[in-house]
Design brief:
CATH architecture of the largest domain: 3-Layer(aba) Sandwich
CATH topology of the largest domain: Rossmann fold
Helix content: 40-55%
CATH superfamily of the largest domain: Glycogen Phosphorylase B
Number of strands: 13
Distance between the termini: 13 Å
Radius of gyration: 22 Å
Number of domains: 2
Order of helices and strands: EHEHEHEHEHEHEEHEHEHEHEHEHHH
Strand content: 15-25%
Length: 353
Amino acid sequence: MKSIAIFIPSLLPGGAEKQATILATILDKKHKVEIYLLHGESSIAPQNQELLTNSNVSITRLQGNIFSKIYKFRKLLKEKNTDILLNYLTSCNVIGAIIGRLAGVKLIYGGIRNARIETSKMIIDKIAHNFISTGTIYNCYSGAEYFTSKGFNEKKNIVIPNGFPNIAEPIVRDDREVKHIVTTGRFVPQKDYHTMIQVIAKLKESRTDFVMDIIGYGVEEENIRSWIAQYGVEDITNIFIKPDNVQEIVRNADIYLSTSIFEGTSNSIMEALNWSLPVVATDVGDNKHLVEDGRNGNIHSFGDAEGMANSLLKLLDSVELRNNFGAYSHKLLKNNFSLDVFEERYTKVVSQQ
């Protein structure tokens, strides 16, 4: 049994926070795990608190000014004879690397949870990665490749994609008169909703036995509504702003569409795989690890509205193709992103001497 510390700014709602919580509960099976919160005054998201309910994971909230927090953190790492320190996000990557070394921790890993970060953060993350930490764990291959191109020591890179909890049973769908295409995500320029509406408009030129369900919220809402009107697709487009039943809407869809111009590991596409959906997506970030072209969907260059429309047309034509792709989606998620696979990958990291 090893003493493992997870150092993260907070356990507020968020992808990194959820993954850190999941990791803590998994490692708790065989090791003594402590979560240290840099912003100890912050609350813990209910979903993260629920994940921790039946575990023995301890949580230490660092309090006071930054100097008192650092002093207490170093003291506790030494007192608990911490063997492994897993840091999340830039502030904790840098503080954790330095304080972990001062406390005599044997293995120290940074955690970068996106394919891109601000230049100022990247510089200090690079210093911690190259000169202090044992290595850095990325949640996407595209991120590791990008940071290597920016001078991060490639030999110290480790990629462990996000684990997906509670994978559903496979779904086989019947054909129906009106098919639903769905997308979920923040309403931000990164998601390229303009291209998405163009895709829907091109589809409408060939058939009208479908609707587009757009789920999300954000600064682009007004633009999205304007594009829907501009391209004349109001009659086949639904917008859902922060609905309480997001997963129900996705589960009841027939096809998933993503037109992003930038991604890391797309949680929304992973959710589509969980519901056995075929996926049409852009070739950005780690999408090619989630969508195998011709196996569970199709991959296109971002902005390729015509190509994506053609792929959707083929899927709309055949319930058999949709179900075959959907079955492979589910298989891909289970084989590559289940918590069992997630646990196996982290076990290899913490088993190092």
